[in-house]
Specification:
With 621 residues, the chain is of the alpha+beta class. It folds into 3 domains: 210 residues, Immunoglobulin-like (Sandwich); 197 residues, Neutral Protease, domain 2 (Orthogonal Bundle), CATH 1.10.390.10; 77 residues, Pdz3 Domain (Roll), CATH 2.30.42. Helix content is 32%, strand content 27%. It is built from 17 helices and 31 strands. It has an 8-stranded mixed beta sheet with strand order 7-6-10-2-1-14-17-16. Strands 25, 26, 27, 28, 29 and 30 form a 6-stranded antiparallel beta sheet that branches. Strands 19-20-21-23-22 form a 5-stranded mixed beta sheet, with helices on one face. A hairpin with a 2-residue loop joins strand 19 and strand 20. The longest helix is centred in the middle third of the chain and has 19 residues. About 6% of the residues have low confidence. Bound molecules: zinc ion. The site of zinc ion has 7 residues, from helix 7. Zinc ion (ZN) binds next to helix 7.
């Protein structure tokens, strides 16, 4: 996953709170026990789904699910409470309505909703049950389902429940689309001779393949025996030829690093939207939402490259080689792992590195991207109090902005930097004979699907095995600890220098409600960094009206504060609730520190060799 929208995070938070209040602690155990029971009788179950979309403007999908070869008195159907890759509870069942059960002959059967995500059907001795329901689909986000008169798009968990105890059974899906829609893009394979029917060997595979159905554009290219498809929904101003060329370059670079491809097809699904954000990885596909009119800017292209390269590297890191709890999935509860700094952070590391290795970026641009990552982490006080493992586990919570400002940082950010530090450290220790690339190839060989994921501590073991030396101190200090990261030392191995610059203008360390209109009176404060002079004076929720007796706007605040020297007293006027307060803040410097990374002209041949092989991915520079 990458860059989810802030508004989406807030709604996840509400869903999570609702779910936590409803789920008893023992729920996971009881589900497992029932799964075992049902599993004994589910050996020959035949499961098929049919999807209708005949009234797209209603946003309602019509789903028919048929389960045959039943032997027990009950059939339990469970919707996932989370979608793999988006590590938060989203309650996929929330938009299901008009749930009915019947025999295949149409005789109604009793169906009761037993939890927020599960229905139990009394089979009355019938060997086949047909269930029908509708799903309201109005979310085009990367974890959503959407239906309108231009297209159908969905993530399987939002539309299809699994039979409790029979997730391992094969399933089919028949799509009944309007004839005017010509194209279906998905990672699932079609059944031979049945163009609109798709098959999956089990439920995990089935729902890990989103669908895009409509009249979108599709480009293709081949590499090492695999077919790559780029499906783009929506108008945009990105040059299609450059779009394909850059995707091909990124794919080639990553496939070359990881070795042979173990799949036949990979599908990039793009939604070009006025404010599209984020990307979500799947078994052999990805959904990426982008802003549609940024194709004439380098910012737009860099954002596109960053997310495309990140999501494609997930093909290996997390979809195939992964911590043990991340597949096969338990969809009934949160599955926390401390290793998201590997699964996400190091996916970002290789995502960016392959923009360089594919030739799209020059080294200077890559070093600038790394320097930006250093700046992000080094300006967040939370790096001193939270470990990257805790940050990984905490992703299942959603902090509000005020709390997160001082208590959280991104495991994408620190994980990317840890990836770089480990890579350079391994190269230095092994005289450039081994690299982090070797660690990921080792993980793929030893823990890649269909093998089980790695156990707790497995990533460190893999690093030590590949490097041939122990990394206890590194992991204790920087992964399980909060020591400052040793950028200078590691970059030095590659003949690079980190330069530190205090940025101007002054950063007050205070954030406000986004998009506060310039005409609004006062700035509503949403978070205050603990290292800022405002921290013990202003409070979250205050509305800042004036500085030094003069009205403030978001545009003028930094300049108004910059008039005061360190140690001077700054009069502030605020509303705190209904009260108008005059407060005094003592100015202290809270400079934002920027960084640059430059090549050392005095680098030795050994340093240059490490740098060159790091840039190119080839052992001998
Ligand atoms: Zn990701």
């Amino acid at each position: 996953m990458k860059n989810s929208a802030p508004t989406a995070r807030r709604s996840f938070c509400l869903a999570l709170l609702a779910l936590l209040s409803l789920l008893p602690v023992a729920r996971a155990d009881s589900v497992a026990a029932r799964a075992r029971q049902a599993g004994g009788a589910s050996g020959g179950l035949q499961i098929s789904y049919e999807l209708g979309m005949s009234r797209p403007t209603t946003r309602l999908y019509d789903v028919t699910m048929t389960v045959a070869n039943l032997t027990g008195p009950q059939l339990q159907l469970q919707f996932p409470v989370w979608i793999p890759g988006a590590y938060r509870v989203i309650d996929a069942a929330r938009n299901v309505q008009e749930f009915r059960a019947a025999t295949t002959g149409g005789q109604p059967l009793p169906a009761s909703k037993t939890t927020t995500s599960e229905w139990t059907i009394d089979t009355r001795g019938n060997s086949a049950v047909r269930v029908t329901y509708k799903v309201f689909a109005n979310e085009i986000g990367i974890t959503g389902a959407h239906l309108d008169d231009t297209h159908a798009y969905f993530n399987g968990p939002l539309l299809f429940p699994y039979v409790v105890g029979a997730k391992e059974r094969p399933v089919t899906l028949t799509v009944n689309k309007p004839p005017r829609w010509t194209t279906i893009s998905t990672g699932l394979d079609q059944l031979p001779g049945k163009p609109n029917t798709f098959a999956a060997p089990d439920y995990d595979t089935f729902v890990d393949a989103p669908f895009e159905i409509g009249n979108h554009s599709v480009q293709t290219f081949d590499y090492k025996g695999a077919r790559f498809e780029i499906a783009i929904y929506g108008n945009h101003n990105y040059d299609p030829e450059q779009f394909r060329r850059e995707h091909e370059a990124l794919v080639r670079s990553q496939v070359d690093m990881m070795g042979a491809v173990s799949f036949k097809r990979y599908v990039f699904i793009y939604h070009m939207l006025p404010d599209g954000r984020g990307g979500l990885e799947h078994l052999n596909s990805t959904v990426i939402n982008r802003r549609k009119w940024l194709g004439n800017t380098e910012e737009g292209w860099d954002s596109l490259r960053g997310v495309a390269s990140h999501e494609f590297f997930h093909l290996w890191n997390v979809k195939r080689l992964r911590p043990g709890v991340l597949g096969p999935f338990d969809y009934t509860r949160q599955v926390p792992t401390r290793d998201l700094y590997v699964s996400e952070g190091m996916t970002s590391y290789y995502g960016d590195l392959h923009i360089l290795r594919s030739g799209i970026w020059k080294p200077e641009r890559y070093l600038k991207a790394i320097a930006e990552q250093v700046k992000t982490l080094q300006n967040l006080p939370a790096r001193r109090i939270l470990t990257v493992e805790e940050s990984s586990i905490n992703t299942w919570f959603t902090h509000d902005d005020a709390a997160a400002a001082n208590a959280n940082f991104s495991y994408y950010n620190k994980g990317e930097l840890l990836g770089m530090l480990l890579d350079l450290e391994i190269r230095q220790r092994t005289k450039n004979a081994r690299t982090l690339d070797d660690v990921f190839r080792y993980l793929n060989e030893n823990f890649g699907l269909p093998k089980a994921g790695w156990p707790v501590g497995g990533f460190q073991q893999a690093v030590e095995t590949v490097a041939g030396s122990e990394f206890d101190e590194f992991f204790t200090r920087y992964v399980a600890g909060t020591d400052e990261l040793p950028y200078e030392r590691a970059l030095g191995y590659a003949g690079l220098r980190l330069e530190r610059k205090e940025a101007v203008p002054f950063d007050p360390g205070v954030k406000f409600t986004a998009d506060t209109p310039a005409t609004a009176v006062g700035l509503p404060i949403t978070s205050i960094l603990s290292e800022s002079p405002a921290y013990n004076v202003l409070a979250n929720g205050d509305i800042l009206l004036a500085v030094g007796g003069e009205r403030v706007t978001e545009a003028t605040l930094a300049a108004q504060l910059a008039r005061f020297k360190s140690g001077e007293r700054v009069p502030l006027t605020v509303f705190r609730g209904d009260r108008l307060l005059e407060l005094t803040m003592t100015m202290t410097a809270r400079p934002t520190v920027s960084y640059g990374i430059v090549e050392d002209p005095q680098a030795t041949p050994e340093q240059k060799a490490i740098r060159q092989s790091w840039y190119t991915g080839r052992k001998q520079g």
